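Quick one, T. Sequence first:
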Amino acid sequence: MTMSRPAYKIDTAHPGSDLAGETAAALAAASLVFKKTDPTYANTLLTHAKQLFDFANNYRGKYSDSITDAQSFYSSGDYKDELVWAAAWLYRATNDNTYLTTAEQLYNDFGIGYWNVPFTWDAKSSGAVALLAQITGKQTYKDSLKSICDSLLSRQKTPKGLTFIDQWGSLRMVSNAAFICVQGADLGINADAYRQYAKQQIGYILGDTGRSFVVGYGTNPPTHPHHRSSSCPDAPAVCDWNTYNSASPNFHVLTGALVGGPDSNDNYKDERSNYVSNEVATDYNAAFQGLLAYLLKNNL
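Structure tokens:
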């Protein structure tokens, strides 16, 4: 007897505008990276980005309504922000005004400028605001970006100075938010305040208050990140639940990985089983690394 597996896919009958739109945005952005060094590859990326955006826009819906197994782990809040995000990136990559017109129309239709939610794997509205502000220079987008960032700077901080947005991946959340705001700084929006804020938050992450939250870097860095491969010994040694539950440090140092981070009172436990505070992920590191590069480039 064979067991059928659920279909982990989106199609016209089972849409996923957020999944397709996010992928379209990533491919469009990547095409810009490879445009000069490998134009053939860049064109391939752009072709698929266009196809995915057309699919996302024409067949609308949340991917987690189509791939229901994802609902317990990565349920999508909405797909509208990813459509705007994708259209804006396609304009950046193509200079085709059709995409800009679409991005601005959807932005207005969906009221994206009023969302003011943190920038995460699931929420791209603040990124879309920043991107449209960069592309168009229009005051309406700049004003929305200023509102987002001024609100961030006024948020509650932990006793040691971390802006606390959410418990799950607290450092990821502030890195992402600060990265959005330094884009505003480059547009002349509260430039000194946003850059100094970003520097202070990065300082917290790198160890200014006594410990680093980056694996393999600085003072007393995490040694038990919730990460499968780095916690396992080399084969053929056994890697099982005893390994997972061991108090020993991970067998391999996952250098450069940003862990989730502390709670609202700066409490943090370097425990492998604590996936809320000690998990690592690509979306944790992406804007964090971008922010580091920004600070380095600007000698901050």
